[in-house]
Amino acid sequence: MELLKWELQKIWQGGIVAAIALLGVLYYFLFPVFYIDYFCNGPSAQAQFDLSAAWVERFGTTIEPEELPQIKEQLTEEIALFETRAAAIPSAAEAGLTDYSAFLSFQSSYYDAVSEDGGQADMDTERLIHLVMNNTNYYTITSLEQFLQGYGDQTEPSRQDLLDIGYTDSMIRRLGALAQPDLRSGYLPIGVMSSTNEYARDLAVWAVLSTVLLLSPTLVRDRLRRTRALQWTSRRGRRVLTAQMGAAALSALMLLVINAALYALPFLSKGPLAFRDCRLYSLWGGSVPWFNWTYGTYLLVLMGLILALSMTAAALTVFLSQYSANYVAMLLKSLPLFVILGPLAGAWILDAPFFFRPLRREIGGGVWVCAGGEAVLMAALLSLGLGLCILSCARQRRRTL
């Protein structure tokens, strides 16, 4: 235990911790903060969020057919509110746009005329339309209409249509399983899922980078100070590598807990946990999940993937640092390690994991990721890291004094 504490003290040096903290602040304001500032990116996404949050308290996690009349009544009330607010806008009242149907007709006629005129916009008309849209509950009404349309039209495309767009047999079977009535009435907002996945992806990249930065200097420092030569003189000293790897794993876990806690505060302040019991498959649309978990369970799954990624980064960093004679050599190993585990593997694994998605985000779909493909890749990477560390410890113990 004393040896483990000593190795932890060697890892958590004040200078490197301060550097990681400073870099972490810069990284946060360069990347993840965007998905906090624009958690619901746009007025339509915000309207979806507000409606869904109110429905969770009112109806629970699903809206059953017998509750649908209440949604239609809400739409009627929102249209009446629109007309009241539109009448309070002088330019809208002057143009006769105080009726919702009249506004839709005016908007549609204008956009049709612009399309026929080769895209030549009239800025005064554009300004008037957006003035009405932004100063009324227009986006709430359109979101309600979208929801009701999606609820009423739940017909499944034919098998041939799905095959034509590249869906596999397993994907088609999964769609069929999700066609059950009790699975088709959830309403988790698209914006929540989009921001969640993007935020988790940035956290995964940072978790890898901070882990590599924290652990890279330790064994190299021992080598430069000839500590390894002193340890090599006794059998107990040779077992220090096991303690170092244990300290590295514990440090990676501690660092992830700190990172996750700091990242969670601004994220949770946006209120996503209101949907913790909602299923991933949503009437608002979006990708189809391979596993129809609740949103709360999905958050735990994402954290599990990030934890596995951090452990992999820790294992491979410690393994590579054994074979680095100086800091420059370790830097040359750390950079490609970070790129492979962070922006490449980590970002890919956390790119809407466990949903229908192509192997590459390209037009036409291409090759699709199988169910649980992200977990398989993550398990392979973690097994590689742990296997190399175990092999290193075993080889060192077998060597003669």
UniProtKB/TrEMBL annotation:
It comes from Oscillibacter hominis. The lineage of its organism: Bacteria, Bacillati, Bacillota, Clostridia, Eubacteriales. It comes from the Bacteria. The chain crosses the membrane at residues 12-36, 203-220, 241-265, 298-323, 335-356, 376-394. This is ABC transporter permease. Keywords: Membrane, Transmembrane, Transmembrane helix.
